[in-house]
Amino acid sequence: MAVLTALRESPGALVRNPVLFVPVLAVMVVQLPVMLLQSVNPVLASVASALVSLLSIAAIPFFQGGLLAMADEALGGQTSLATFLDSGKRHYVAILVAYLVLLAVNFAFGMLAFVSTFAGGILFIGSGQFGGPNLAVLVALGIVAAIGILAYLLVVFFLQFYGQAIVLEGRDAVEGLKRSVGVVRANLLSTVGYVLVAGVAGAIAGIGFAGASTLLSPDATAVMGNPAPEPSLSMLAGVGVGVLVLGTLFGGFFAVFSVAFYREITTE
User: Fold this and answer.
1) How many CA atoms lie within 13 A of 27 on its CB side?
2) pTM of the full structure
3) How many domains does the chain have?
4) Tens digits of residue pLDDT in 31-59
């Protein structure tokens, strides 16, 4: 099975090529100050987070292109940061275009969810009850929202390998998106297994990040309604190191695992 083969190949590639963790660590180092800042100044942390998110739109395509190429080389032997830089530049435009398409899809579905929720809230507040026609409209809005969520998940499911198609096969943005759809459609069961494994790993990492965020939140150290004391330097250092290690390990593993899986299902 492709998922099991990818799981077997990924650890060895990472052990042979620890340099693959370097780009992931660099990204984590950039993001870490924003997380730590929330314990000191939540408002400033929100502003910094927004700025980092804007910058990431421009940086993610380069990072994705370089990391996927490194993962591909690592599975075959040795890789280097030169591969990261070269592939990041070579595939930047194609990945950026595909990434912007996905952002547009996210925005469209997000607006659909917002409108449905807003309309339902207005209806509820205005009616003061759940009876008659109002209930029917709320149910209809709920169905629309459910369909929208399902459609969004399907879009993400079928387009998730656009980066691999662009980097590993040299396709442009449109071809990469189409190739991803074709590959997933031809390997539905294997892809479901891949998503489940990636989801479990992501959930574990997410729990770790959520725990770190909770420890750093002002409410976490507040006692009996008193203002929360600032976290100690040792606490900040401990949380920071934990986040860096967890994020770097997960990011490196997922990059190699995704490439190994894609290679397996496209050569079967």
Assistant:
1) 22
2) 0.83
3) 1
4) 877 777 776 667 777 777 788 888 888 99
